[in-house]
Predict the 3D structure of the following.
Amino acid sequence: MSALIDVRNLSKSFGKVKAVDDVSFSVAAGEVYGLLGPNGAGKTTTLRVLATLLKPDSGGATVAGHDVLKAPEAVRASIGVVNGGMGLYDRLTGREILYYFGRLYDLEEQQIERRIAELDDLLDLRDTLTRRAGGFSTGMAQKIVIARAVLHDPPVIFFDEATSGLDVVARRAVVDFVRDYPSKGRAVVYSTHVMSEVEELCDRASIIYRGRKIAEDSVDELKRSNGSNSIEEAFFRLVSRVDMGHEEVR
Amino acid sequence: MRPVMIWRVARKEILSTLRDTRAIVSNLLIPLVLMPVVMLGMPLLLGGLFEREATNITPIGVVGMSNLPAEFVAVLEAQNVELVPVDDGVTAVQNGDVDVVIGVTEPLAAALAGNGSGTISIYSKQGNMKSELDASKVQQAVAIFQQQVVALRLVDAGLDPSVLQPLQVQNVDASTAAERSSGQFSWLIPFFIAIWTLTGGQMTAVDATAGEKERGTLEVLLVAPVRRTEVVVGKFLATLTFGLSAALMAIVGFLIGGALLSAVFLPRLGDQGAEIVSMMGGGLNVNLLSIVVLVISALLLAALVAAVLIGISLFARSFKEAQSYIAPLSFVFIIPVVLLQFKDLIGLGNEAYLIPVFNVLLLMDDVVRGVVDPGRLALVWGSMLVLILLLLGFAHRNFQREEVIFRS
């Protein structure tokens, strides 16, 4: 089976700023793929193009076999998205929010109930289902955000800085979920600037810096080829090489 | 567009607004209570004040009390006035001792003798309602006294007082009965619909669009496989629901207020009362057809306002930004109402029936006067439908634009 996500020479600018510059990668079923880079490197823009929210200037991508430009609706039906800054509807309960989105994905009532029960086991949703979201802690809110993203059991899931703004316990819950969520036949893209999360979760990762992909390999190989003990050390070696090259070009 | 998806989007917005106590109070309760309070409160308050002013004994200052002829004093006192001697007119009024002072520097009786003339000064604070009201009593007394003097002089000269009025003028109203009972306030209902749809739909519109951006819920909604048109139309329908319910409540409140008003005041007024009722548009012969026309026009007007709300608040980044765009809108609706008052002067052609909002006011006016022209009706409804679709198209286009969705 071919890759579930295939990104080819993707570029996207905002005005004069090149947010994403000729980025390509592919993710196979069963793989957790990391996008590692500092804030503003172009990770979010890349994922927004894959989620059909932004149109690329050039290049393209297919997600679950659907072209993001030609079949955006089919792409949207195949993906789940978890962002760091995602909010919920304050005056609805967790269950009502999940029902609302389940209905937008055209799920039947029994399907939604069954998925809520499954996700309750995985995420320990408990009283987030019956309480209104306005009173949630950030950790509780993020559980519903995750449950909402995977409610329709999508083959492709994007996590974009999904742990930002969370406390230690809530952060742990998100990381545990990504690690334990059944990965068979599924592709996960995990975008973050937190090196330890990539080390723990990702099979392969690319390092994104100033809109460009500057390295891509398995996490172990990224460390080894840069003579580093940690992914953080490898990251800074790679980045400083790019910055030096940048200086020479000038 | 799939109707079931539109309904799912709309239902969530309706549920969310229903849970918002503040929105419900300002949507449904305030218009219901406010309308009767304003309608009854103002006349009760003002009526009470004027009545008290008219019957109370008003103190009036006088400079040069001895210069006033006894006949003039009698006329003044008949106006419920008590005369108080003061030293200086300007200072007495400025100090607030009295609100009005009469100043007479020479003995008036002597000045008027032998067809002579005298001077009388009235000191009042112009622009002060109480002072002007008191001054009008004095002016009325002066006018009566003046007539008495003139009548005496004419008799002395051997003339009948009627020589001063050689022409008798008769005013005959040549308008038809329909025009007379044209309901000069027929603009009130469409005006309420526009204003209260704006107020009532605002919360839902802003919450469903700019609010989703601010809370960070819009992105995930746009990632769901629901079409943008379905989202826009669903949110529009939820806005329309609350806008219309607020407008309905205001109309119910208006009717309650009207019923109370006629129960409290009309018996006191007698014939004048019937005239007021027909001015307000009451007692009209409104048949079934004109009711259908009125209801459809009202629905279109509410839909237009709801579409404006969705278009504007989708463009805004946050609650605050959306509200600052919406606030001046209620002022905009006053312009066509003012314009309507001058419609006879302007001399309106068919083009006027294309001006949004104003055309609904014109149509309502035509309906109550019973002169609805089918061509003009088509112009009004057609132009409104086109405008609503354009506004929803604008909202939909904004939903497609990256810089509007991710404006923060």
Notes: The beta strands of chain A are 5-14, 17-27, 32-36, 58-63, 66-67, 79-83, 156-160, 187-192, 204-209, 212-218.
